[in-house]
Amino acid sequence: MALTIGMIGLGIMGRPMAKNLLKAGYPVVVHSRSQGPVQELVGAGARAAASAKEVAGQVDVLITMLPNSPEVELVALGRDGIIEGARDGEGARGGLLYLDMSTISPIVSQKVGRALGAKGVRMLDAPVSGGEKGAIDAALSIMVGGEKADFDTALPVFQALGKTITHLGPLGAGGFTKLANQIIVAVNLTALGEALTLAKKAGLDRALTLKALSGGLAGSKCLDQKSPNYVAGTYNPGFKIDLHFKDLGLIMESSRALGVPLPCTAVVQELFNAMRVKGKGGLDHSGVITLLEELAGLPTQS
Fold it and tell me: Is 208 helix (H, G, I), strand (E, B) or coil?
């Protein structure tokens, strides 16, 4: 009998992930603050629940895909939260397995894990990379921290959502790996923005420039995935500046705690901050190029 999966958070990433769980044949129970996506998923075969507590009481595995640490803490440990509805581990079905696939502070993941563990709930932190396209295509990279036995139980669920699935160590290890990933993506997108701004100021054709760059050492998944944005000059969000700025804050917080200087990341954080100050936090993170074009005195589109 297929495990019943709960999904809380049906935004840009959570909604296609829930659809892929349905496609894989899992019974899915959904909950989100926005009712539009809930009704869409119900139309696709999911069941709706009125609270995180209600979801937790109905499922074997529960996934959250939420914006930040406070939302995860509230949904997991707050009133009508997961901790109030989760089974205690007794009985034939055993206790709830909780997979937080949000990008949050690894320290908060460990705190939530300890609190839920006292209730008999097992937890993995499993943030993802791949953006909206990866979520839609079930091609996410999933970075997992927690007990190996719990990872093995969750692996078939992860395989319905992603392609590169790695167990990295104890709870929190997934989150630290995701923060490292977000350094590379933010710096890469900023470097692409600088390079393409230079090329544009020199009068080069953007599509041809991207083609040339993609075939050499400068090629990257960022370049491949974001090329349509750069060519069109439009930056509809696959992953918003606002969310990546949040991740950069988590990165710098962790770097200070661990004593790791991150000078390039600090500069990129301020560029993303400038985008938000200009009211462009809702753009895709590749849209940082528009700030660089503006600084170069070039016309921009967004």
Answer: helix
CB-neighbour burial class of residue 173 (10 A; exposed 0-12, middle 13-18, buried 19+): buried
- Between the CA of residue 183 and those of 72, 130, 172, 176, what are the distances in Å? 22, 14, 17, 11
pLDDT of residue 302 exceeding 60, the answer is no
pTM here is 0.90
With vertex at residue 178, the alpha carbon angle to CA 111 and CA 13, rounded to the nearest 5 degrees, is 95
CA-CA distances (angstroms) from residue 201 to 194, 195, 204, 296, 299?
11, 10, 8, 8, 10
Using one digit for the tens of pLDDT, what is the confidence trace for 161-201?
A: 999 999 999 999 999 999 999 999 999 999 999 999 999 99
Instruction: Please count the residues of the chain.
Output: 302
Give the whole-angstrom CA distance, residue 15 versus residue 56.
18
Q: What is the pLDDT of residues 132-159, one digit of tens each?
A: 999 999 999 999 999 999 999 999 999 9
> What span, in angstroms and rounded, lies between the C-alpha atoms of 91 and 95?
8
Tell me, what amino acid is at 212? A
| Sign of the torsion formed by the C-alpha atoms of 114, 116, 118 and 124 | negative
Q: Which residues are catalytic?
A: 178
For the chain, domains (ranges, CATH) are 5-171 (3.40.50.720), 176-295 (1.10.1040.10)
Joined together, the tokens standing for residue 263 give 């000078």
Contact 162, 140 (CB under 8 A): yes
SS3 215: coil
